[in-house]
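2024-03-11 09:14:02 INFO queue: dequeued item UTP--glucose-1-phosphate uridylyltransferase, len=296
2024-03-11 09:14:02 INFO validating residues
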Amino acid sequence: MAFRITKAVVPAAGLGTRFLPATKAMPKEMLPVVDKPAIQYVVEEAVAAGLTDVLMITGRNKNALENHFDRMTELEATLEQKGDTDRLKKVEFSNDLADMHYVRQGDPRGLGHAVLRSKMHVGREPFAVLLGDDLIDSRDVLLSRMIEEQNNRNASVIALMEVDPASTHMYGIATVEKTGTPDVVKITGLVEKPAAGEALSNYAIIGRYVLQPDVFDVLEHTAPGKGNEIQLTDALQTMASENIAGGVYGVVFRGRRYDTGDRVDYIKAIVQLAVERDDLGPELRPWLKQFSADLD
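2024-03-11 09:14:37 INFO prediction written
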């Protein structure tokens, strides 16, 4: 039976230790990417794909996430009094972006555990999981394509991207076999962050999943794995190898992805997005060219 997917789960309970001290008192998901927090890009992507019910899995000191997607009446009143309608629209935009819900993860026991915390909210229907470290360019189609394939195949679907073989130890890696669809593969095996040189492919899992609700049953019986955490990758490996709920397929993404989980890649993401904006690019591009020339 096909369901219209409306629910998105966004795990956001991580401590963001790679960005300390900036993330000592501010959630890493609130770090600005140009002039919007990273988490807003993720929620906008979900909404653009037709997902209107968003559950965030949060933790301690994450109140700023809830505040961002709520009204700030004093700020709105001040902007209205000043006649600053452009900034007022930007502030108000996030208020009603989606139907937002929040649940705490408690102990940080891994991505699989975070997803399992959404079980009561999601119920027995397919749902999407979006990780905040991966930003997908709004001009490129990924999530809606994954939802389409999930509906067609009645199976779980994950996003894959080909990466440099030297970087496979940084990702969950999939072994695959071709299907009759060029951008879709069937997953035959998954391993979380294999040792350098031991990966069987360069198909890396990136932070988008469209999952059958059966994943909750599997996660409840998944033992801690890499890092002594409950890994979503391990649960999906079980579903793939045992063909649970239709097995697992992958949509191979070849568009623009920005990694905000690493400091250097975070800076690159800001620059890449800023230079393509009409309000910033014309001034920023020539400056970057001169700056680059001066480096040489």
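2024-03-11 09:14:37 INFO annotate: The mean pLDDT is 91.
2024-03-11 09:14:38 INFO item closed
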